[in-house]
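Table S7 (text form). Paired inputs.
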Amino acid sequence: MEIINTYAGAPLSTIINPNSDIYPMENPPFHIAIIPDGNRRWAKQHGLPLIEGHRVGIDKLRKVMEWCRNMGVRMVTFWGFSMENFERDKSEVELLMKLFEAKIDEVNREEVHKNKIRLRVFGRKELLPKKVREKIEQFEKETEKYDNYFVNILLAYGGKQEIVDACNSIVEDFKKGRIESVTEKTFANYLYTKDLPDPDLVIRTSGEQRISGLMLWQTSYSELYFCPKLWPDFSEQDLRDAINDYENRKRRFGK
């Protein structure tokens, strides 16, 4: 609860867009994590190059961010590129990295600043091309003081790798005498997302029913929702259905 209060920002009633056609939900989750799966399959179904599926998928991220804001969701995390994705065809990975670079430039900065949206990227960012890293760092710096809405992108990310990196950092600090023992709270402070609240709801598209390593530590008590649609076909109603389903669940956190 302490972390969520840190991210509370302005009262929700003061930042919802009153002119939006999308009405806020009654009790929306604070933090939704999304696995936007199905871009490649969508491209194949439409007879398009794979990169076009990724292009449409990235554009869908923007729409979902807007829907989340207007439904009252304050934080959304998208898994953009996994560690396993580096094993795909080299030309596809290179095209995707160039697409990331181009799409960062296309972001409507006026909208970001108007809505005070903070953007952060988590993962092994050192594996990304230099230009992509530089653009990410600039964007993060521009928005670091905003606290109305929060958008997190996982790039060069893997849940197992995150835990391994945390363990290595803990070992290093233990050797240097910075820590004497490890508790759950201590361990969480070594994760990439150490100062984020855990996801309340995880949504995965494309019909696959697994989380594939998404935030393994953080999602231990997250509610899971699987949508059969491929990510480019994911709609505002699909998001509303997921949140409705979440609102009707009783979260017990193992109690």
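Next pair, protein 2 of 2.
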Amino acid sequence: MKIFESHTHLDNPKFAQDRQQVIANCHNAGIERMINVSCDAQTMADSIALAEKYDFIYATAGFHPHDATELDLEMVRKAAAHPKVVAIGEIGLDYFRDISPRNIQRDAFRQQLELAIKLKMPIIIHDRDAHEDVLSILSEYNPLKVVFHCFAGDYFMAQRIIAAGWHISFTGNITYKNSKLTDIIRMVPADKYFIETDSPYLTPHPHRGKRNDPTMLRYIIEEIAQIRYQSPIMIAQQTFNNASDFFNI
């Protein structure tokens, strides 16, 4: 089955010793497209380098809220012009760790949103414990293509996202015993969700505690298939089509 990994960080140092082998394993596992997501200046450069080396890897441009104080909008603009850069992200707000002051996070978020809209590019949202502010700021701009990566909101928030015409992406946390996402997985329209690993983070059950990588997507596919009463092949194909359309690939 064809699989689309919509959010990974293969440039992360945790892959330093075997990155080439991991990428080969992904290709052999049927992962035909991957988005390597940027967080700062270094990861933008590294993501683009990976995308240039591998045909089936694509990159993004953007500064994560943790790195909001370092925002260089001109750097994002230049990176976004690369033919393998397919989205602005991950951008948004993180009130859980509060590494950057919240007012600076909000300002960086707005600046990058404005750029994404000007460039007509999809947007990958990072939202942790900042649901209302993220939705409020997005509503100021009402961008067309938005995905909430690693969705962790409640049912009502999911309904608001879907009503706005945006997308939700599910990751390994849906396989955890304490997951509260089952009803959301069942409710989300077939054309409004993706799958991702966010690797090397959020390793799905039964491999929690180990490094995550895109080959673990099969556990996410199987979990969604069970919840939605569909075959894994159907889930893989649907999410492949959804992400391909969203990222214009």
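The chain has a mean pLDDT of 97.
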